[in-house]
Design brief:
Number of helices: 3
Oligomer: single chain
Mean pLDDT: 93
Helix content: 25-40%
Order of helices and strands: HHHEEEEEEEEEEEEEE
Distance between the termini: 17 Å
Number of strands: 14
Number of domains: 2
Shape: globular
CATH class of the largest domain: Mainly Beta
Strand order of the largest sheet: 2-5-8-11-13-14
């Protein structure tokens, strides 16, 4: 959680590294990176209980860019090192908690089920492939890779494995590290 300016700088730097970007976003382009920067500023201003106009300006811009890119990602859900791979629909429940160094692709849903307000708790260094669905009050161990179009409805307690299918089953003992930017492990 971002509670200070130093936390804000750390989160934004780790996001930059996870995305594989250089120093600053381009004036034209880098829309996903700009979205993540706005998200981190919104987290900072919300967590520090700021009542400034700047907070509302960031929230307005964040919602606007979210709609443009097709993201429904609430603040204070992802840890540092978030890497969104592509534009496209991504829906995340506000009760979900995702650890550091998560790479998420388009078409992903992380949600609750049957009126339950609780959602997934996802560990560090997790890769979530295109179209994957993580549904319910479940936990996912660190270093897990979730294959494209997988539907995860039960806990994944075995770290360093790959899961796929409907419903998701373990398909290999390969961890997620090949799917993440290797520089995130140097931080």
């Amino acid at each position: 959680m971002i509670d200070s300016k130093s936390d804000l700088r750390e989160y934004m730097e780790r996001d930059r590294i996870a995305l594989g970007k250089k120093k600053h976003p381009k004036i034209i382009g880098d829309y996903i990176w700009k979205f993540e920067i706005l998200m981190r500023y919104c987290e900072y201003y919300s967590n520090t209980k700021s009542k400034s106009v700047v907070k509302w300006l960031f929230l307005f811009m964040y919602k606007r860019v979210s709609l443009k890119l097709g993201f429904s990602i609430p603040i204070n859900v992802f840890g540092p090192g978030l890497s969104i791979a592509h534009y496209g629909t991504i829906v995340v429940n506000p009760a979900a908690r995702i650890g550091k160094n998560c790479r998420i692709h388009e078409g992903v849903t992380i949600g609750a089920t049957n009126g339950d307000t609780r959602s997934a708790q996802i560990g560090d260094n997790v890769f979530i492939g295109s179209g994957a669905k993580v549904i319910g009050n479940i936990s996912i161990a660190p270093d897990v890779a979730i294959a494209a179009n997988a539907v995860v409805v039960t806990n994944i307690q075995e770290a360093g494995t790959t899961w796929g299918g409907i419903p998701a089953k373990k398909i290999s003992n390969k961890d997620s590290h090949d799917n993440l930017n290797p520089k995130v492990f140097d931080c």
